[in-house]
Amino acid sequence: MSQKREPDNSTDDLAGEQDYVSMLYRKLDAERDSAQRRLTGALEQTGGTPQARSERDVATTTYSDRLAQLSSVEQGLCFGRLDFHEGETAYIGRLGLFDEEGDYEPLLLDWRAPAARPFYLATAASPDGVRRRRHIRTLSRKVVALDDEILDLRAEDQGHDLGLAGEAALLAALERRRTGEMSDIVATIQAEQDRIIRDELNGVLVVQGGPGTGKTAVALHRAAYLLYTYRQQLATRGVLVVGPNSTFLRYIGQVLPSLGETGVLLSTVGQLFPGVRATGQDTRDAAEVKGRAAMAEVLANAVADRQQVPDDFLEVEFDDGILRVDRATAERARDKARGTLRPHNLARRVFHDFVLDALAEQATSRFEVDLFEGVPEIPLSEGEDPDVPVLDAGDRTEIRAELAASDTVGRLLDSLWPKITPQRLLRDLFASPGRLASAAGGVLSEPERELLVRPEKSRWTPADAPLLDELAELLGEDDSQRQAERERRQREERAYAEGVLDILEQDEEIIDEEILRVRDILDAELYAERQQRRSELTAAQRAARDRKWTFGHVIIDEAQELSPMDWRLLMRRCPSRSMTLVGDVAQTGAPAGASTWHDMLSPYVEDRWRLRELTVNYRTPAEIMSVAAAALAEVDPALRVPTSVRETGVLPWHRREAEVNLKSIVDDELAAADGGTVAVLCPAGRHAELSGVLAEDERLSVLTVADAKGLEFDGVLLVAPEEIVTGSPRGWNDLYVALTRATKRLGIVYSGQGVADVLVGAG
Ligand SMILES: Nc1ncnc2c1ncn2[C@@H]1O[C@H](COP(=O)(O)OP(=O)(O)OP(=O)(O)O)[C@@H](O)[C@H]1O
Questions:
Q1: Does 282 contact ligand 1 (Cβ within 6 A)?
Q2: With CB atoms 3.0 to 4.6 Å apart as the test, which of 229, 253, 264, 313 could cross-link to 326 if both were Cys?
Q3: Contact 97, 27 (CB under 8 A)
Q4: Is any ligand 1 atom within 6 A of the Cβ of residue 81?
Q5: Predicted ipTM?
Q6: What is the mean pLDDT of the chain?
Q7: 515-546: per-residue pLDDT in tens?
Q8: Where do the UvrD-like helicase ATP-binding domain residues begin and end (predicted)?
């Protein structure tokens, strides 16, 4: 590498940058005051017409959003500076600030703006006009350090071959103690990461990278970048970020708000079926069966099983007589209803109508016979047609309406083709070996079906959510009334949106970027949609409540863990297939997860996806990675671990369980972490026991490997790796995940010999 670091941090340099940074903070304060004043003004207005009230709501939400954004960028507002050969200078930070008194010159470039890009990409070989890149480190509002790089090919080689940008700032960031919450990496994004973050919006982008290569960080920064660059396109539909479990979502939860973005829905797949909380847990084997693509067929069969015909006939009392639905009539009705290809609950009306028609026909004939019973035959007069019905159309309609209103008839129809919810159907299915045998007989073996059987009142599990979603598609929902109501509201909103746009045009004082953009680009229709979003809920909040919501972009972390049924649900949420999938197929632990990207994606997009790879490990030091490499070789000898950025000089330690007191080792590790975090990672079978024994400390977590996925800790104590390996067909993958969670220290406590033989010699 050929980027020279200049001696820096001279008092003059620091003072100069402090002046500039202080000016930026004054500007930020002024913007905040102005947004606060506007918000207070909007809140103080009372009364007025419904339109005026709605306009006030829009203003209130706009200014609140802006205030939240301005507050979120307080820490590290400005973190970089570029000096170009022509003498120009640009400052880079978390949001854009402009000089309103002087021609709107940028005082601070948003990191996502195209002009800020050389900060992440420029190298000595390809400097893009940049002479010096400076990282500005701040603590609160004080400039504490500067790291400079001169991009000059003639400069002496610095000895690092990973092509890192801003190496000193990067290493300082990586050395920081972990707090249990992920931080943003906006000041030190590396070139290979930047290219992924700014990749185009459309299509399926797959990001493959080993542990610690920044996949999660990149995925989140990409969400922020896309929202900035394609705001108009994405603001109404929102962005969905999917993670493997709620611990992980809590871990990453602060990153997007710290980048000023709140309109993103973070969710697990298990949370994506509104109204259902998945608090139960499946066994590994049950989860695997539920995740199979074949479950789609089982569910379709289970729905078909709810569309019954009588063995022979059914009878129903009506108007002091008996009417009959025979098998042939019910079969014709069922064929007609199924022939519409509508979902079950919508096709139900077709079935019911057909049977009602048949019953009405019977009732009418019977009525006519009754009418003439005992009446002497009267000869027809000349020209009279003997086949003209005695009852006219009005009479027939009346009889049919009476049948339709009859409770007994209704019960009969429902016994053949009931209205049913996904929840009801799935509960009934899993509670009944008979129903399961009927729906899954040709698809699952008996032992596999037995894995699914459970009491009716069992709690929902994460693997149930995709099944419920599939059923919701198969069953459909008769929401014609709700639809009409929604359309009426949209018409009203569009009408006053015209008025709101006029008012925004007239408000000469409105200067913030958001509003300028609204005025420039929105037409009334789009504005109505946005206004609805603002005045009620954010896109993310609305999406969380609406199963049929489709997102503008979907980002999936740990994508290798998803089952085929999970994929079916997620693909429904993103018909545009504008998606970013990040993961590592060497870390797959879930029994229904995939081993290749091709297997995962081909059912949905064939080979229309683009692959980008991350190759540098920012988390785990080289000493620990050499142990992890031995585990990875057991997964597949052809796989290679990513290259670590750091060496710490601290070797992993190995002990036998019989020789140690776990409690005191944990205390030692907590002390060694020096205020940082420590995790005890153990096989699932030992989790309850270990969580009970180990002292409560907010810096300590006791976790199974599945729950530690995606997380990191300063120190990791790995207990009984043998049981992790034997506990699952993907045991070595799980062990590889466990070994790569530490940022500084790793200790392994063995309970047997086999795994020790592999790992001890390696590190
Ligand atoms: N450019 C960067 N600057 C500073 N820190 C970085 C950078 N890239 C990654 N990191 C840090 O490295 C660590 C690992 O990143 P991350 O969790 O995103 O990796 P990952 O690829 O998702 O890992 P895994 O697959 O093991 O879950 C995090 O602490 C992250 O903040």
A1: no
A2: 313
A3: yes
A4: no
A5: 0.99
A6: 87
A7: 444 444 445 555 555 445 444 466 777 788 88
A8: 188-621
